[in-house]
Amino acid sequence: MFNKLSSAPVETKNASNDGSNPALTSTEEQSSYDPVALHPMAITDGNQLQYLDLETNTKRAEGLIASRGFLEDLSYGTGAMYMLGLGVGGFAGLVEGLRSTSSTMSARLRSNAILNSITRRGPYIGNLAGCLTLTYNFVNGGITAIRGGEDDDAGSLAAGAITGALWNSSRGLKPMLISSTLLAMTTAGWCRLKHYVAPEDDE
Amino acid sequence: MAQTHSTGDHTRDPCPLVIVNDFGGAFAMGAIGGSIWYSIKGFRNSPHGERWQGVRSAVKLRAPTLGGNFGTWGGMFSAYDCAVKSIRKTEDPWNAIISGAMTGGTLAVRGGWRHVRTNFVIGGIILAVIEGVGIALNRYMVEAPQTPVLPEPVSN
């Protein structure tokens, strides 16, 4: 995704000392004229195309866990956690269904019981994981916005702790503390994993 | 970025990855919409004095489920869309219609063949309507500003 900006090479050497432009030749610094001084991305060597790179203008746009803003983080995080929860819950349901049924049952009855078990466990854990990630992302986005765009591990940990506290907020102080600690620890694990998998995202 | 010849939306990610995005987006839409919907419903259906408790329990009980239903639909639709795109190698409204029908059919698979057939047709019709409205809107938006106002000729 490149936009062609200009194909004309920047004349740096030939334009000097021919006397056609007194404004240039009369100055002392003309000999040390450097296009980079005008703009850090100026072309300094001959016939080269200049490209405007649209993709890498934002912070952390490259890398394995790329971030292109709040909404992308929100939907990718929620989607990934929902699918993960669905898979884990579905597997737990499968194991449970296999255990609770016996092989002497008819195949039709048994498969129905196992499917029931899967669809009872899977969506429950998936929904829970999805909702927690959704809340976490909103809280994290709020914290980032309050801190003026600063998004680091401390903010993520705080967001995890707040999400955990909100989750069990109707059950009293002790469950709140427990779930808050649990989610803060999960967030810490995620941050650790992120640094390990994609160290190029770090400043 | 991979070289693609699609005329589709370039703001979206390439195919296998976009499924996760759609799952999450649909889940978020369902969960947030469900929170609003069920908080109103819980408020109206609770007796005076227990209104906020009613809101809380209704939202906690139903909003995640609605989010999950939305997420399953959206994610499965996206997965089918990617599969259909890769098989047909084209991008046209038929992709969405086919994947809508497939999604409807798949989600009804536990209800028996008649149920699958009905939901297959319903899913296809819903997506056909959505695509049709999209095309109509697009045409309307494009054709509307086709008569530029010419300036009055200056007469001396």
UniProtKB/TrEMBL annotation, chain A:
<dbReference type="GO" id="GO:0030150">
    <property type="term" value="P:protein import into mitochondrial matrix"/>
</dbReference>
<keyword id="KW-1133">Transmembrane helix</keyword>
<dbReference type="Pfam" id="PF02466">
    <property type="entry name" value="Tim17"/>
</dbReference>
<keyword id="KW-0472">Membrane</keyword>
<protein>
    <submittedName>
        <fullName>Protein transporter</fullName>
    </submittedName>
</protein>
<dbReference type="GO" id="GO:0008320">
    <property type="term" value="F:protein transmembrane transporter activity"/>
</dbReference>
<feature type="compositionally biased region" description="Polar residues">
    <location>
        <begin position="13"/>
        <end position="31"/>
    </location>
</feature>
<dbReference type="GO" id="GO:0005744">
    <property type="term" value="C:TIM23 mitochondrial import inner membrane translocase complex"/>
</dbReference>
<dbReference type="InterPro" id="IPR045238">
    <property type="entry name" value="Tim23-like"/>
</dbReference>
<keyword id="KW-0812">Transmembrane</keyword>
<feature type="region of interest" description="Disordered">
    <location>
        <begin position="1"/>
        <end position="31"/>
    </location>
</feature>
From TrEMBL, chain B:
<dbReference type="GO" id="GO:0005744">
    <property type="term" value="C:TIM23 mitochondrial import inner membrane translocase complex"/>
</dbReference>
<dbReference type="Pfam" id="PF02466">
    <property type="entry name" value="Tim17"/>
</dbReference>
<protein>
    <submittedName>
        <fullName>Protein transporter</fullName>
    </submittedName>
</protein>
<keyword id="KW-0811">Translocation</keyword>
<keyword id="KW-0472">Membrane</keyword>
<keyword id="KW-0653">Protein transport</keyword>
<dbReference type="GO" id="GO:0030150">
    <property type="term" value="P:protein import into mitochondrial matrix"/>
</dbReference>
<keyword id="KW-0812">Transmembrane</keyword>
<keyword id="KW-0813">Transport</keyword>
<keyword id="KW-0496">Mitochondrion</keyword>
<dbReference type="GO" id="GO:0008320">
    <property type="term" value="F:protein transmembrane transporter activity"/>
</dbReference>
<keyword id="KW-0999">Mitochondrion inner membrane</keyword>
<feature type="transmembrane region" description="Helical">
    <location>
        <begin position="120"/>
        <end position="141"/>
    </location>
</feature>
<keyword id="KW-1133">Transmembrane helix</keyword>
<comment type="similarity">
    <text>Belongs to the Tim17/Tim22/Tim23 family.</text>
</comment>
